[in-house]
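Re: weekly structure request thread

Next one in the queue (227 aa):
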Amino acid sequence: MLHVYGSMYTIHTMSLHETATTTKARKRKGANNLDKVLGFVGMTHSFRGVERDISLPREKRLENDMEHSYQLAAVSWYMAEIEGFDLDKNKVIKYALIHDLVEVYAGDTPLYSADEDFIRSKKDREKRAASIIKRQFPEFPELHKLIREYEEKNDPESRFVYAVDKLLPILSIYLDKGHAWKNKSISIEMIIDKNSSRVSLVPEIKKYFDAMIDMIRERPEYFVQGI
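Done, posted below.
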């Protein structure tokens, strides 16, 4: 019997009697898919272990992918609702929850990374990661469809979530008084250069981005001076 947890493969062997007894007990309790559920929960643990390149406000640790994905789902849902966007909100939430799931195997690629080779390898790493997840969980076709469609960005929901994903760190770092910007010596010009074209995918989100840039310019203390 093979359980997959993140990138670790742990093999549990049982005797035929133990296997038959365990299977019978699970069926009797209506838990036929318990092994699959355990495997998927294990993957979410690995997902929670992927650290991003942004500190949590008021906490001395980095944000992880699980926290970021939940926050993105909540904020995207909220923004779609208050702006009255004509979007499938269930799809918006699902896209947000899985948009970084490939990082279980591909790892996070920091936006301001100085490692150009690592940045260039992002697409290939994430493509391989999606294939691994598909092999691990063939019984979850909707997940694999959403991962592919988010990467393609051919529907308004995926483009919306992508744009909000680029806006959200700016909002969070602003609320944290620019801690990550100062820590990484990031300038306002760098924020604009890295994000402007990305948020422009959704003009409504670009307006929020532009408004945030105006607010950030009023807070020079949030940046290392002289860069």
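Residues 30 and 160 are 39 Å apart (CA to CA). Strands lie at 2-5, 8-11, 51-55, 62-64.
Next request, please.
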